[in-house]
Design a protein that fits this description.
The complex is a heterotetramer. By secondary structure, chain A is of the alpha+beta class. Chain A folds into three domains: 47 residues, Uridine Diphospho-n-acetylenolpyruvylglucosamine Reductase, domain 2, CATH 3.30.43.10; 110 residues, Uridine Diphospho-n-acetylenolpyruvylglucosamine Reductase, domain 3, CATH 3.30.465.10; 110 residues, 2-Layer Sandwich (Enolase-like, domain 1), CATH 3.30.390.50. Helices cover 33% and strands 26% of the residues of chain A. In chain A, helix 10 packs antiparallel against helix 11. Chain B contains four helices and seven strands; from the N terminus they run E-H-H-E-E-E-E-E-E-H-H. By secondary structure, chain B is α+β, with helices and mostly antiparallel strands. Chain B has one domain: START domain (Alpha-D-Glucose-1,6-Bisphosphate, Chain A, domain 4), CATH 3.30.530. In chain B, strands 1-7-6-5-4-3-2 form a seven-stranded antiparallel sheet. By secondary structure, chain C is an alpha+beta fold. Chain C has two domains: 76 residues, Ubiquitin-like (UB roll) (Roll); 73 residues, DNA polymerase, domain 1, CATH 1.10.150. Chain C contains five helices and five strands. In chain C, strand 3 and strand 4 form a beta hairpin. Chain C starts with a strand and ends with a helix. In chain D, helix 6 links the parallel strand 11 and strand 12. By secondary structure, chain D is of the alpha+beta class. Helix content of chain D is 28%, strand content 24%. In chain D, helix 6 packs across helix 7, helix 10 packs parallel to helix 18 and helix 14 packs parallel to helix 15. Among the domains of chain D are: 325 residues, Aldehyde Oxidoreductase, domain 4, CATH 3.30.365; 146 residues, Aldehyde oxidase/xanthine dehydrogenase, molybdopterin binding domain (Aldehyde Oxidoreductase, domain 4, 2-Layer Sandwich). The chains are: A alpha+beta, B alpha+beta, C alpha+beta, D alpha+beta. Chains C and D meet through helix 1, helix 2, helix 3, helix 4 and helix 5 of C and helix 1 and helix 17 of D.
Chain lengths: 294, 145, 164, 770
């Protein structure tokens, strides 16, 4: 409940933050919303000597529509996304996901960038970053680097973010026409993290055939990943309950599902398949109703 | 918690055996290992920094190799104290088999943690153990003296 | 190693030198002696420490006081904004929305954000917006009634003010 | 005033942030404590190295029990338990529980304490204390602990610390006649109370009066006072324990913990106020838990569904120290048969020590286990005979014709259990109607055809409340007409300040607004037994009634003299005393009280002023009861359970305040829901705690709790003047049983539910196995 001592830095710009990061290196932690970091510090599982609070860097906040893409600053809070008219207009799936994260107080503080940089295996955003093929904008002294979502998540709490780099924002490209999407989550009863979170974005043609399927899954493996086999099986077939069921049956393949005191590996795999199937049925329903992501 | 796995190492069983018994190699391959010293013929003391997501702790402990049957099997037993974070102990039965590609190393490990990491990280233990094991063997496979 | 912070709490600017590690909840309780805001857990689950910070409901156990530097904070002591009770407080009392009262300040502060964002909340919205506050005594049924009643009271007050 | 749904008096301060919980106590020069706790479930404590901690800025001292003889004290063996008179127990042998043990016996046991100028510095200090341990093999589960070769929790003591036997009727004959014999094991989980306020204690030594003021979150302030006074060698009256605003108790705060003694002892020696507040993590690991319990049942029944007899082997995990002997087991036994006839019963029970925190009662205290067992037994008979579970219940229920009915148990106070004036079939009938049981049976069939899994379950409980020995109250009218009601008990949210004020106002004829209730302070009364076992309304409520009645008598006698009328002409209404039929002839209660102070006529009325102290001794416990019916839908793919309808029909006698009764039912139900579907204190095989935070320990949230449909039935009792029963521990008891039955029924009894909690994982893995 009482964190250890640290020195607090509040840079006003990204460059200042990078300089501090360069100076303190491994002894420093970046503070975004702090809703994973601060609890760890309170329990003294983490005792960084320096905390670099990014909260004062205005350029890292906000949702902007730039041409065909939606740019979200890394420090934008979940509620900032949930309540963003820009996001609602351009990519409503983002609002749908944001509104399901933890609870209102956490959504008011927790940030999209913090969540994606932390890469908790049960966090919500990773599934959607994958399903939407987001681009991760990282900055370091060497300049800017863009990482596709498919390369971002590398393991348990491990991302492509390199030492000395700051995740500054996300860019979500325009989805193909006739893409319907949804986020379906089984909330952990105690922690409110995702036991399984499925973000599905499926493009169909006017005949109902699946042209492209992107399904990101969080909570099941050691890190979020795409349900590659399910996607492949769907593509080129009519998006209907039978094909969905067949494809969802493969959803957990390739995931390194573990067991804990709440759910066994078998439970996780079963829930993964069921939630993928239901998410896809949800997508189908939206596609049939003409509710596409703009 | 139990975990098992299998890796194919490019080196043969002899070389693999040597590496597992070599403090220099072990230090280079154990993820986060800051110090590793031989304290007996088959025992070592170690300092390992574990930094995964919500936890960053330095574990001080010992590793011992027992039931050595050159060059096919051995048992690795270790225990470490991580201060406020708690402690970890475990053992692994390691088997080496000569194969055309080099050496197949299979292991069956059992690990136990206690203190705060058990109390607060229950949902992550499986994943952490797997990650550390995977990293260790990946490092071992690509280690070059 | 202390940092100076200046936080407007319940309308009054309060300054102090604090260690950067001091959590906002401890700043409020131990430095300002505003003990209405409680601590019920250490993993940001229970919501007993909820206050409004720049209008947003936050769990003050997961914010460092230094992060709140320059912010406007409202605690349960300032909820009514003067003498008398806030409609939420009235409603919690009338509907027996509290028993031990320990989670109540946080619950009411979360409810105040809920009613700002959703002045006529549906049952689902009430449940979704109070998901971050655990109550162990009431079973929540009376909390729901209290929030519904508070919404009515606020509406009536606004109408009365509008009529004037 | 009685029976009116008036809003609570305590709320005004609680909703404005002006409550005074222990952590709110802030005194000049206050120091703060942080405990060093064992990370091992069993370990020899070889050495406590204090140097590094003492060097931490702000740290005042580090104490490991070697400093003062008082720190070598032990906790009282039996924490307020009164079961030693139980005829069931045949053996009990317990080790001493020291404040600072030489050997840690569970994870989180206190090893040393750091005192510092701020809570942060105290935590820094605790982190800097280096302890050398020699870890020893631990035993985490009662099954293991009972094995002959298992490690002993305490050297020189068997892991089975207590044993009991009880029988009713002829079990052998029952099994000889039985057409059906079934046996299985039922298990209920260990729980934490999870009051949102964790435990805390603050202490201040007052040099001027050489006395100690202590602020406590405990449910038993007098026991705390007496223990600490005894440890320090002070008269009881030089130790004052204040426990006024407490943020929930639920049983786990009804225990004297080591910290409760250590902090006052240190404050006494250091001459500085000290405060300690448990963190949630500490609560999860080191506070007591309810203990796993297992029942091996063997059922003798007839094909027509009649239960002939029951054999029960009861295993209870009591943790490292057994502070409640076999109270919980005895509670289970005494509530076991609920509404049903069990002609023959043979019970054997064991209290088994493990390397987990000490066991404590949690709201319900053994009743959840009883209800789960009885209803699972009846459901098993239904399954075996293909009868509807409702029909099996009807065939075994105790009827009004059987009243007064003795089930053969003997309560903890030594009095045989007897039900009178309770109409169990009526409770069941009302619940069945309210739940539309028959309608759901029909819909269940239709919906099953559509592939939907709908199930119905019944749970029935009885609740003994109002356990003695007694409680007292002092009632006083001051010169301003304010009425003070003092009681020897404190509240953890149960609304005493309101309900007891209602009793006093009603009895005296006073205005409700004029009455203030004061409890939770050992200076106010000479005796008090505490808040637990649903005993306050019955004991303290009736004591208030007696004391207020006595005060009223004095008022009447004196007023008759002052107003020149006959005593039977005196009317007291709204705090005004007047003469019947001559309302202009009146005096306000306060004025009368003021007048009495110097009036020699008061010699005959016991001295100046109007006040009286009275005690209420219940003959034995009173029995509340109720029926729960749950209708659920189970999602076979995801294991999700949706509650479609939940009915509670209950009797708690006359409600003092319906608002408060409803609140108790609602809150108790939510806890029962948690017990049914997820709450679980989990230890691994080394007795390490895995449920160390609210990230892993489930507590129902607002969206998890369904609507409930409650019907109050009143079966009056003549057992006490107020005609009340208890309600506090009613509602958590039956959801486990009712929901288990409903889930099993929804899945067409293809799975067997024999263990609480029933999680998604339970359902998914059972379905995989089926």
């Amino acid at each position: 409940m009482f964190p250890a001592q640290f020195e607090y830095h509040r840079p006003g710009s990204i460059d200042e933050a990078l300089a501090l990061l360069g100076e303190y290196g491994d002894d420093a932690k970046l503070l975004a919303g702090g809703h994973s970091l601060i609890p760890s510090m309170k329990l003294r599982l983490l005792e960084p000597k320096h905390l670099i609070d990014l909260g004062n860097i205005a350029s890292l906040k906000g949702v902007r529509v730039e041409g065909d893409t939606v740019a979200v600053g890394a420090l934008t809070t979940h509620y900032g996304v949930e309540s963003s008219p820009e996001a609602k207009g351009a990519l409503p799936l983002l609002c749908e996901v944001a509104g399901q994260i933890a609870d209102p107080q956490v959504r008011n503080r927790g940030t999209m960038g913090g969540s994606l940089a932390n890469a908790d295996p049960a966090a919500d955003w990773p599934a959607t970053a994958l399903a939407l093929d987001a681009e991760f904008i990282c900055k370091s002294d060497a300049g800017e680097r863009k990482v596709p979502a498919s390369e971002w998540f590398q393991g348990l709490f491990t991302t492509a973010l390199e030492e000395g780099e700051i995740l500054c924002g996300l860019r979500f490209g325009k989805l193909p026409e006739r893409t319907a999407a949804t986020y379906l989550k089984l909330q952990h009863p105690a922690s409110r993290f995702a036991v399984v979170g499925v973000s599905a974005a499926v493009t169909t043609d006017s005949a109902g055939k699946c042209v492209q399927a992107r399904i990101g899954i969080t909570g099941v493996g050691t890190h979020a990943a795409r349900a590659a086999k399910t996607e492949r099986l769907l593509e080129g077939r009519v998006l209907d309950p039978a094909n969905i069921a067949a494809a969802a049956a493969l959803a957990d393949e390739g995931f390194d599902a573990g067991s804990d005191m709440h759910f066994s590996e078998s439970d996780r795999r079963e829930l993964c398949r069921a939630y993928v199937e239901r998410a896809l049925l949800g997508v189908l329903e939206r596609a049939n109703a003409g509710q596409f992501q703009p | 918690m139990k975990l098992d796995g299998e890796v194919v190492l490019p080196q043969g069983t002899d070389e693999t055996w040597k590496r597992i018994n070599d403090p220099v190699v072990l230090k280079a391959c154990i993820p986060g290992c800051e110090e590793l010293e031989r304290t007996g013929e088959h025992s070592f003391s170690a300092v390992v920094k574990v930094k995964i997501g919500p936890v960053g702790a330095k574990f001080k402990g010992n590793v011992e190799l027992t039931e050595l049957e050159y060059p096919v099997s051995l048992k690795l037993v270790g225990a470490g104290e991580g201060g406020v974070a708690g402690f970890a102990k475990g053992g692994a039965d390691v088997k080496l088999t000569e194969i055309p590609e080099g050496c197949k190393l299979s292991y069956v490990a059992e690990a136990n943690v206690g203190g705060k990491i058990a109390q607060l990280g229950a949902r992550l233990l499986d994943g952490v153990a797997k990650k550390l094991a995977d990293q260790f063997f990946a490092n071992l496979a690509k280690y070059e003296a | 190693m202390k940092n100076k912070v200046s936080i407007t709490v319940n309308g009054v600017e309060r300054s102090a030198e604090v260690e950067p590690r001091m959590l906002l909840v401890h700043f409020l309780r131990e430095e300002l002696h505003l003990t209405g805001t409680h601590v019920g857990c250490d993993t940001t689950q229970c919501g007993a420490c909820t206050v409004r910070m720049n209008e947003q409901a936050v769990k003050s156990c997961t914010v460092f006081a230094v992060q709140a530097d320059g912010a406007n904070v409202t605690t349960v002591e300032g909820l009514a904004g003067g003498d008398g009770l806030h409609p939420i407080q009235e409603a919690f009392r009338e509907h027996h929305g509290l028993q031990c009262g320990f989670c109540t300040p946080g619950m009411m502060m979360a409810a105040s954000q809920l009613l700002d964002r959703y002045p006529e909340p549906t049952l689902e919205q009430i449940k979704h917006q109070l998901d971050g506050n655990i109550c162990r005594c009431t079973g929540y049924h009376n909390i729901i009634k209290a929030v519904q009643s508070a919404a009515e009271k606020i509406k009536a007050r606004k109408q009365a003010q509008g009529a004037r | 005033m009685l029976g009116k749904a008036v809003p609570r008096k305590e709320d005004e301060r609680l909703i404005t942030g002006r409550g005074l919980y222990v952590e709110d106590v802030q005194l000049p020069g206050m120091l703060y404590a942080s405990f060093v706790r064992s990370p091992y479930a069993r370990a020899e404590i070889l050495r406590v190295k204090k140097e590094a901690a003492l060097a931490v800025p702000g740290v005042v001292g580090v104490y490991d029990g070697s400093e003062w003889p008082e720190l070598k004290a032990r906790l009282p063996e039996l924490n307020g338990s009164v079961t030693l008179t139980s005829p069931y127990i045949d053996h009990i042998k317990l080790p001493d529980h020291l404040l600072f043990p030489k050997r840690a016996s569970y994870v989180g046991e206190q090893v040393a304490v750091v005192i510092a100028e701020t809570p942060y510095a105290a935590a820094d200090g605790a982190a800097a204390v280096e302890v050398e341990y020699e870890p020893l093999p631990a035993v985490a589960r009662w099954e293991e602990a009972m094995k002959p070769g298992s490690p002993r929790v305490h050297e020189g003591f068997d892991n089975v610390v207590a044993h009991l036997k009880h029988k009713v009727g002829d079990a052998d004959a029952a099994f000889a006649q039985a057409e059906i014999v079934l046996d299985f094991r039922l298990e209920t989980q260990s729980l934490k109370s999870m009051a949102i306020e964790c435990r805390a204690v603050a202490a201040q030594f007052d040099a001027a009066t050489h006395s100690l003021n202590i602020w406590s979150t405990g449910q038993f302030p007098f026991m705390m006072r007496n223990t600490i006074a005894g440890v320090l060698g002070l008269p009881n009256d030089q130790v004052r324990v204040i426990a006024r605003d407490v943020g929930g108790g639920f049983g786990l705060k009804g225990v004297l913990y080591a910290e409760d003694v250590i902090i006052p002892v240190l404050a006494y020696h250091l001459r500085c106020p000290i405060r300690w507040a448990e963190t949630r993590n500490e609560h999860m690991i080191s506070a007591n838990h309810s203990g796993n319990q297992a029942h091996d049942v063997r059922i003798a029944a007839k094909r027509d569904g009649t239960l002939l007899g029951l054999e029960l082997k009861l295993y209870k995990e009591v943790g490292a120290y057994d502070h409640f002997d076999m109270m919980l087991q005895i509670n289970t036994i005494n509530h076991l048969t609920t509404h049903y006839k069990v002609p023959a019963l043979r019970i054997e029970g064991w209290a088994v020590s493990t390397n987990t925190p000490p066991g404590s009662p949690y709201r319900g205290a053994g009743r959840v286990e009883a209800v789960f067992t009885m209803d699972r037994v009846l459901d098993a008979i239904a399954r075996e005979t293909s009868l509807d579970p409702l029909e099996v219940r009807k065939r075994n229920i105790v009827t009004p014709a059987d009243m007064p009915y003795r089930n053969g148990q003997i309560y903890r106070d030594g009095v045989p259990v007897e039900f009178d004036g309770i109409d169990f079939p009526l409770l069941l009938k009302k619940a069945v109607e309210r739940a539309d049981y028959d309608g759901w049976r029909k819909r269940q069939k239709e919906l099953r055809a559509q592939g939907r899994a709908i199930g119905i379950g019944i749970g029935s409980y009885i609740e003994a409340g109002g356990l003695g020995p007694c409680e007292g109250s002092r009632v006083k009218i001051d010169e301003q007409g304010r009425i003070s009601v003092f009681v020897g008990v404190n509240s953890q949210g149960q609304s005493h300040e309101t309900t007891l004020a209602q009793v006093a106002a009603h009895t005296l004829g006073a205005k409700f607004e004029d009455v203030s209730v004061f409890g939770g302070d050992t200076r106010l009364m000479d005796f008090g037994f505490g808040t637990g076992a649903s005993r306050v309304a019955v004991n303290a409520g009736n004591a208030v009634m007696k004391a207020a009645g006595e005060v009223r008598n004095k008022v009447v006698r004196y007023a008759a003299q002052v107003l020149n009328c006959a005593e039977n002409e005196i009317v007291i209404n709204d705090s005004v005393v007047s003469v019947a039929g001559a309302t202009q002839n009146f005096i306000k209660l306060g004025d009368l009280a003021a007048r009495s102070i110097r009036d020699r006529r008061m010699i005959e009325l016991g001295g100046p002023g109007f006040h009286a102290t009275e005690f209420f001794y219940p003959r034995t416990v009173v029995w509340g009861s109720g029926v729960n019916i749950a209708v659920v839908e189970v999602d076979r793919r995801t294991g999700a359970v949706e509650i479609l309808k939940y009915v509670i029909v209950h009797d708690c006698g006359l409600p003092l305040n319906p608002l408060v009764v409803d609140g108790q039912i609602s809150g108790g139900f939510a806890q029962g829901l948690g017990i049914a579907l997820g709450e679980h204190a989990v230890f691994d095989e080394d007795a390490q705690v895995l449920s160390g935070s609210l990230m892993d320990y489930y507590v129902p949230r607002i969206g998890d709790v369904p609507e409930i449909d409650v019907e109050h039935v009143v079966f009056p009792t003549k057992d006490n003047p107020l005609g009340i029963k208890s309600v506090g521990e009613s509602a958590p008891n039956a959801p486990g049983a009712a929901l288990s039955a409903a889930i099993e029924d929804a899945l067409e009894r293809k799975i067997r539910i024999t263990r609480l909690p029933v999680t998604r994982s339970t359902i998914l893995s059972a379905l995989r196995a089926a």
